[in-house]
Design brief:
This is 6-phosphofructokinase type B. The protein has about 750 residues and is of the alpha/beta class. The chain has 26 helices and 26 strands. The longest helix has 25 residues. The C terminus is likely disordered.
């Protein structure tokens, strides 16, 4: 919520509006007085990394009455406030819409009571409302994610990872209860991201007799060598008759029937606290800036809107339509129309549920397929690779295929380091960072003959390559060698996995979210150290090759003063302007600075050069320090996003490959030589798409290992606007950011 407060405040000031912060929610709005304060640029400095909300939040009975709303209207008119941005759940947003609909009547009543003049009422005749959904449950229909959900998932996964180690040591079963009285999103995604053995969500109660089936499956898992069981239960879990299923009931059931040592952990309000994740900080910043634009562009006929996330775009939707669909979900659950409730939750929720059911327990294939697939990792390690391998192996086995895994990438394939795997060989892989298979940067052209020999030897008909730019380039080399080697006329698919996020054909690569969070956490600590010393500027170097995604998104997430990247050229004049900005900043109460530099952003303006420049120009005003984050950005446990994303991509890639294999299978052999049989799978806006590598070649800058167009460049303006209020919009319109400015400020595309 703090990132949203910061973005709304700074964007409001940026466009020339007066911005007021209302403390303690609707209670502060009703009480007025010191609860309504005008904000300046520095009012929201150094809050982006804080959990909770610095302006407070409170439930307010008075606002549910007309008398309370009358007092609230009086307080707004007193400050000439006619635009209200409300950050909260569907109850808070519904209250705001009621307030808006009554506004004219409330002003009329204030005039009649003599509390305001007719002139004042005329000047404040219209109240515009925009909503931002803040809810850890992700229970609001119309948006892919609500503010706070990703951070709550981080807290849950931290607990699950910690519990897993003790559960394995003691051979225990753990029943974890997570929040979600009416929505099972947190339970579902954490179950999918942890590979939980059993899952209870209110939208899909278990069938009658579930107790027998659950105990049978838990016992079966243990008999196959597993040392632990994880059961995740949403606090609102019910059975088919609507009777609550409690975590203690599940625990007692396991103890009585199986005799397993079982513990219950209720996570409770731990899920609401802690540092916000990078995703939440960027999401809130996007939404906050779009909210200001929505208020500025509102007309008397514009209905109250809510700013939502669709793919990687902020969009505006009618508030009450979204509230109504949200209520329809609860109504469907109350009326025991559970399948409809899951559909109403949205495509993503339904997709998550179906994938969880596919992967949680082994189901024998209906028949053995004639196809065999090999899975390998290529390039630098990235978090989420193991999640993708696990789901690909398991869905391939469900399809009846023979599944091989290859150690050490293309080099391992050339050396014949190929082995067949089963369902349980990939158990426990979901939460592990790096690459369990091992990965190398070797490209096929250096060992093509040996690769072809082993493809023939193991009769590999499908190749799933999980990796970065080398994976994409390697598959392209294999495709281009098809004319020379018939053995390479097989189905191939690339799952992009790299912290650099530089693979063409996708908006997000596996591992980039984990890397951004790792860089963000380091920068948070660096900023904290600077707050003690004062008058200090840190220059932090991030990885990413020529791609500036990591620097840009980390810069937004930590509130950096600048982030230098290759894609957004800069000159010595830009560096001079940044130094002057930091010099001015040191005269305020915020006496610290943070500058990010992508490792290959400029041939001559190196990290050392920037350090010397800033040190020299800031002499006597501030001193400088360098931090090179290095390989810590590649390590660590995958974030919930990367675990979930890797799991989904693994499933979708293998299902697509299975379909293609059927299409090109004839007379007992596979022959795939068309361009559409070798693709990169990726998320493009909101859709998972398969792009032929031969088509992507046309839009790739191979010299710098970059796609020619990158969506995240739209975020550059946001970074600069939120960092430095002295920058004028006209500078961007006349400069290189012209296309970005016009695109990002349009209503359809948003930030």
């Amino acid at each position: 919520m703090n990132a949203a407060v910061r973005a709304v405040t700074r964007m409001g000031i940026y466009v020339g509006a007066k911005v007021f912060l209302i403390y303690e929610g609707y209670e502060g709005l009703v009480e007025g007085g010191d609860n309504i304060k005008q904000a300046n640029w520095l009012s929201v400095s150094n809050i982006i990394q804080l959990g909770g909300t610095v302006i407070g939040s409170a439930r307010c009975k008075a606002f549910t009455t007309r008398a309370g709303r009358l007092r609230a209207a009086r307080n707004l008119v007193e400050h000439s406030i006619t635009n209200l941005c409300v950050i909260g759940g569907d109850g808070s947003l519904t209250g705001a819409d009621i307030f808006r609909s009554e506004w004219a009547g409330l002003l009329e009543e204030l005039v009649q009571d003599g509390q305001i003049s007719e002139e004042v009422a005329r000047k404040n005749c219209r109240l515009n409302i925009v909503g931002l959904v803040g809810s850890i449950d992700n229970d609001f229909c119309g948006t892919d994610m609500t503010i706070g959900t990703d951070s709550a998932l981080h807290r849950i996964m931290e607990v699950i990872d910690a519990i897993t180690t003790t559960a394995q040591s003691h051979q225990r079963t753990f029943v974890l209860e997570v929040m979600g009285r009416h929505c099972g999103y947190l339970a579902l995604v954490s179950g999918l991201a942890s590979g939980a053995d059993w899952l209870f969500i209110p939208e899909s109660p278990p069938e009658d007799g579930w107790e027998d089936l659950m105990c049978e499956r838990l016992g079966e898992t243990r008999s196959r060598g597993s040392r632990l069981n994880i059961i995740i239960i949403a606090e609102g879990a019910i059975d088919r008759s609507g009777k609550p299923i409690s975590s203690n009931y599940v625990k007692d059931l396991v103890v009585q029937r199986l005799g397993f040592d079982t513990r219950v952990t209720v996570l409770g309000h731990v899920q609401r606290g802690g540092t916000p994740s990078a995703f939440d900080r960027v999401l809130s910043s996007k939404m906050g800036m779009e909210a200001v634009m929505a208020l500025l562009e509102a007309t008397p006929d514009t209905p109250a809107c809510v700013v939502s996330l669709s793919g990687n775009q902020s969009v505006r939707l009618p508030l009450m339509e979204c509230v109504q669909v949200t209520k329809d979900v609860q109504k469907a659950m109350d009326e025991k129309r559970f399948e409809e409730a899951i559909q109403l939750r949205g495509r993503s929720f339904e997709n998550n549920w179906n994938i969880y059911k596919l992967l949680a327990h082994q189901k024998p294939a209906q028949e053995k397929s004639p196809f065999s697939m090999a899975i390998l990792n290529v390039g630098a390690p990235a978090a989420g690779m193991n999640a993708a391998v696990r789901s690909a192996v398991r869905i391939g086995i469900c399809q009846g295929h023979t599944i091989y895994v290859v150690s050490d990438g293309f080099e391992g394939l050339a050396k014949g380091q190929v082995r067949e795997v089963g369902w349980h060989d990939v158990a426990g892989w979901l939460g592990r960072g790096g690459s369990m298979l091992g990965t190398k940067r070797t490209l096929p052209k250096t060992c093509m003959e040996k690769i072809v020999e082993n493809v023939r030897k193991f009769n590999i008909q499908g190749l799933l390559v999980i990796g970065g730019f080398e994976a994409y380039e390697g598959v392209l080399q294999l495709v281009e060698a098809r004319g020379q080697y018939e053995e390479l006329c097989i189905v191939m698919c690339v799952i992009p996995a790299t912290i650099s996020n530089n693979v063409p054909g996708t908006d997000f690569s596996l591992g980039s979210d984990t890397a951004v969070n790792a860089a963000m956490e380091s920068c948070d600590r660096i900023k904290q150290s600077a707050s003690g010393t004062k008058r200090r500027v840190f220059i932090v170097e991030t990885m990413g090759g020529y791609c500036g995604y990591l620097s840009t998104v980390t810069g937004i997430a930590v509130g950096a003063d600048a982030a230098y990247v290759y894609e957004d050229p800069f000159t010595i004049h830009d560096l001079k302007a940044n130094v002057e900005h930091l010099t001015d900043k040191m005269k305020t109460d915020i006496q610290r600075g943070l500058v990010l530099r992508n490792e290959k952003c400029h041939e001559h303006y190196t990290t050392e050069f920037l350090y010397n420049l800033y040190s020299s120009e800031g002499k006597g005003i501030f001193d400088c320090r360098i931090n090179v984050l290095g390989h810590l950005q590649q390590g660590g446990a995958p974030t919930p996003f990367d675990r979930n994303y890797g799991t989904k991509l693994g499933v979708k890639a293998v299902l697509w490959m299975s379909e293609k294999l059927q299409q090109v299978y004839s007379k007992g052999r596979v022959f795939a030589n068309s361009g559409d049989t070798a693709c990169v799978i990726g998320l493009r806006k909101k859709v998972v798409a398969f792009s032929p590598v031969t088509e992507l070649k046309k839009v790739t800058d191979f010299e710098h290992r970059l796609p020619q167009e990158q969506w995240w460049l739209n975020l550059r303006l946001m970074l600069k606007m939120l960092a430095n209020y002295q920058i004028s919009l006209t500078e961007y319109i006349s400069g290189q950011m012209e296309h970005v400015t016009r695109r990002t400020l349009s209503i359809e595309k948003g930030f």
